Each structure stands twice: as C-alpha cells, then as structure tokens.
Amino acid sequence: MALRIEPIIVLASQSPSRRMLLEQAGVKVEVLVSGADETVPEDFTPAQTVECLARRKAEAVAPLCPGRPLIAADSVVSIDHMIIGKPADDEAAKATLRRLSGRTHQLYTGVCLMAGGQIQVFHQVTDVTFYPLAEEEIAEYVAMGESTGRAGGYGIEGVGVMLVQSIAGDYPNIVGLPVAETLRRLRKML
C-alpha cells in the first residue's frame, strides 16, 4: 500500500496548522472554508461535539466540490469534563491558561472524511499536561498573540510548546489533525 495520496484533497478548514500537517505528509490540499454553524447542544460530550462539527463542515463544503475527496475537522480542549473553547480576548486566554496550569487536559479532534461515495466520522483524544505556569509566563505568552483563535488558548506548534510538560497520544492531533489515522482511512476510501 502506497504512503502517498495523489488526488488534491479538499480541506474544509481555515486552520493553517491543519493545512501544514497535510502538506508535510505530502498531500496536495485545496482549502474551502465551510462557514458552518458551530453551535451544538449544551449536553454534547467533547467527542460528540467535534464529530458533529466536523461532519457539519464537510456537508457544507461537499456541494462545492462534488466527487472530490474531502477532509473536515474540528478540535476542542476539555478539562474537568467541560469544553474550553477559543478565548474571546486576552483576559479569557489568561483565565484559560491559569485553569490548565499544572494539570492534564484532553485535546479532542473530530474528523469527517468524504470520498468514493463514503463518509467516515471519527475522533481522537490526546492527553496534554502543562507545567505549573507563573502569572508572568501566562501574561507573556498571551501578549505574543498565539492564544488568538486557538482551542484552549495555546498552540503547541509554536512558543506554546514551552507550556507543555508531557503528552500521551498523537502529537499532530494536538496541532489540529490526527494525520496518520486520517490519511490511512482516506487511502482505504479512495
């Protein structure tokens, strides 16, 4: 079985990190942003949330690229069984990082694949443990701007790597896409 996927894949995500991960894996990508509604029922678990949103993004983009292989994804951070979204502003980012400081949280990514007339939806979870963070570290990190638009208020592929003591699970999942599982599943669908 070949490691490479030849057709250009439609990525229904505006995340530059997801695009980067796919391109690093040798996949040619065309980005089409879904603009899909990202609200879900309050009683959804993190797994239900990311799977629902990934599928919704894929279904919104699919009519724009009929018959083409498509990947859509969504990620959330969860701690204490609660979803931590993207911080609204710098103060919210600081509060989020204080909550994650010295603790283990989960990063959930849901993926929806459409190819060859098939649809697959799955999720992956990675445990991330932060070092205890001093207030000055939190303020300095937020001032760098990496918290903006990030689930959990950090990005592990940038300076945010300095916050992380350990991970258990798939590293690319934290960046935004479990690349190996995604591409292995997609290859079987093509």
Explain this structure to me?
- With 190 residues, this protein is an alpha/beta fold.
- The chain is built from 6 helices and 7 strands; from the N terminus they run βαβαββαββαβαα.
- The protein has helices at 16-24, 46-61, 90-100, 135-143, 171-175, 179-189, and strands at 9-12, 29-31, 70-79, 82-84, 104-115, 118-130, 164-168.
- Strands 1, 2, 3, 4, 5, 6 and 7 form a 7-stranded mixed sheet that branches.
- α3 packs across α4.
- The relative contact order is 0.19.
Give keywords.
7 strands, seven-stranded mixed β-sheet, 190 residues, alpha/beta, 32% helix, 6 helices
Quick one: overall form?
Answer: globular
Number of strands: 7
- Helix-residue proportion: 25-40%
Structural class: alpha/beta
**Share in β-strands:** 25-35%
Query: What is the averaged pLDDT score?
Result: 93
Helix count from the secondary structure assignment: 6
Largest sheet: 7 strands, mixed
Can you tell me the residue ranges where pLDDT is under 50 for at least 5 consecutive residues? none
What's the N-to-C terminus distance?
12 Å
Q: What is the string of helix and strand elements? A: EHEHEEHEEHEHH
C-alpha Rg (nearest Å) = 17 Å
